[in-house]
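Tokens as discussed.
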């Protein structure tokens, strides 16, 4: 088909759920002018996916670029290839679809990553790229069949009144709850059940003397406000905030255990003993592990590894009977076992069915982000050495998993990562179920 006339050279067809993407060259310059762009066609991004492969090409990000009369061209940005590829293009050496896509990606915020566009996307995260550019992201299992409705300009839905919250799409409510929780001290699961878990009819946006509820209603009902907040609080910011809250919960669990050892139980309060602390830590680890089943940026993966490793190291250091030196009178339960008095034994050093981690504490979660765990090799080596120096150590199955993970990280081979995926498949599924 012929190229559009020059007066339409900057027109970009957009799907209904996207905003206009303005072109910029993929360079180190942060400044560009309209005179620098020389578009000779109309392009837009239909959707994108993230693929993890063990073949020669390796991992890649796939982008479905549409041109003028909505002809899709699949552009792939490979980890192990110097240049993106557009297999269907008639002019692969001077592909306009690759050029257009690189201009759009260049509009996202800089991360300081060295290398080409793959490294930029990997560091920032494909989900964050999509959030910033208002692109649709699909999972690897999603079908390519559903068609996309295209418009020349995005039209937002006007604020509604008299609508039941049960009729608002669940994805929208989840997004809003995650955004608002990120701006609060609590997690999304804990945030404002009166707004998100109750089925009510919203007649007015304003909720007197309740700023949070008013903003939530705005986000649920007004598309303009909703998309502005999605830009302000992107997915990656939500993930990092959740990780830090989980870390804080783990630290608090250790502190409450220490206070319990020092002062004993408080009347009318939960006893923050070893079994309580162990269950709290397993809940934290499982919550973090559940994130590994969703696309994460490199920064989020590295933070996940750091938090999980710090929890593991702290538990290994707590290999002692917590009641051995207490100064308060205690009347133990006749059914109490030795592992109920030692946090390390309960979570790692025992294969007992009473172990709430079921012999896989932290390791299953680390497998989910092993491609970003190279920086934790020394810490994991230290943990393995520490466990090995203990008189009773840990069950052979746990040590085999730990040493296997360390060897995978040291080798850095694709075959090692693939094998690790198979070894950890069962534990990953278990973590997902527990979440």
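Sequence:
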């Amino acid at each position: 088909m012929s190229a559009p006339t020059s007066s339409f050279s900057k027109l970009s067809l957009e799907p209904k759920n996207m905003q206009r993407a303005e072109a910029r060259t993929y360079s180190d310059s942060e400044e560009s002018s309209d005179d620098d762009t020389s578009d000779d066609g109309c392009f837009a991004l239909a959707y994108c996916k993230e693929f993890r492969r063990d073949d020669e090409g390796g991992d890649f990000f796939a982008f479905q670029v549409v041109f003028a009369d909505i002809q899709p061209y699949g552009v792939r940005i490979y980890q192990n290839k110097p240049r993106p590829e557009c297999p269907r293009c008639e002019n692969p050496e001077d592909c306009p679809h690759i050029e257009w896509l690189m201009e759009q990606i260049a509009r996202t915020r800089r991360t300081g990553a060295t290398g080409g566009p793959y490294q930029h996307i990997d560091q920032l995260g494909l989900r964050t790229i999509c959030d910033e550019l208002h692109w649709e992201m699909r999972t690897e299992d999603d079908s390519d069949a559903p068609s996309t409705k295209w418009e020349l300009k995005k039209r937002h839905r006007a604020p509604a009144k008299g609508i039941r919250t049960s009729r608002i799409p669940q994805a929208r409510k989840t997004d809003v709850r995650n955004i608002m929780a990120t701006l609060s001290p609590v997690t999304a699961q804990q945030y404002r059940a009166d707004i998100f878990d109750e089925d009510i009819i919203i007649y007015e946006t304003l909720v007197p003397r309740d700023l949070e509820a008013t903003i939530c209603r705005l986000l649920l009902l007004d598309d303009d406000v909703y998309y502005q907040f999605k830009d302000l609080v992107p997915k990656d910011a939500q993930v990092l905030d959740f990780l830090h809250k989980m870390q804080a919960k783990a630290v608090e669990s250790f502190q409450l255990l220490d206070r319990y050892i020092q002062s004993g139980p408080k009347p009318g309060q939960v006893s923050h003993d070893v079994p309580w602390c162990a269950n709290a830590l397993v809940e934290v680890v499982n919550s973090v592990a559940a994130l590994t089943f969703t696309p994460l940026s490199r920064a989020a993966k590295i933070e996940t590894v750091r938090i999980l490793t710090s929890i593991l190291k702290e538990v290994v250091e707590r290999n002692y009977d917590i009641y051995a030196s207490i100064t308060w009178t205690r009347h133990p339960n006749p059914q109490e076992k030795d592992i109920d008095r030692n946090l390390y034994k309960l979570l790692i050093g025992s294969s007992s069915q009473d172990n709430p981690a079921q012999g896989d504490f932290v390791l299953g979660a680390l497998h989910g982000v092993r491609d970003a765990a190279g920086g934790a090799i020394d810490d994991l080596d230290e943990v393995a050495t520490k466990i090995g120096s203990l008189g009773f150590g840990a069950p052979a199955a746990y040590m085999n998993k730990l040493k296997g993970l360390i060897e995978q990280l040291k080798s850095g081979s694709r075959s090692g990562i693939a094998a690790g995926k198979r070894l950890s498949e069962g534990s990953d599924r278990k973590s997902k179920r527990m979440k």
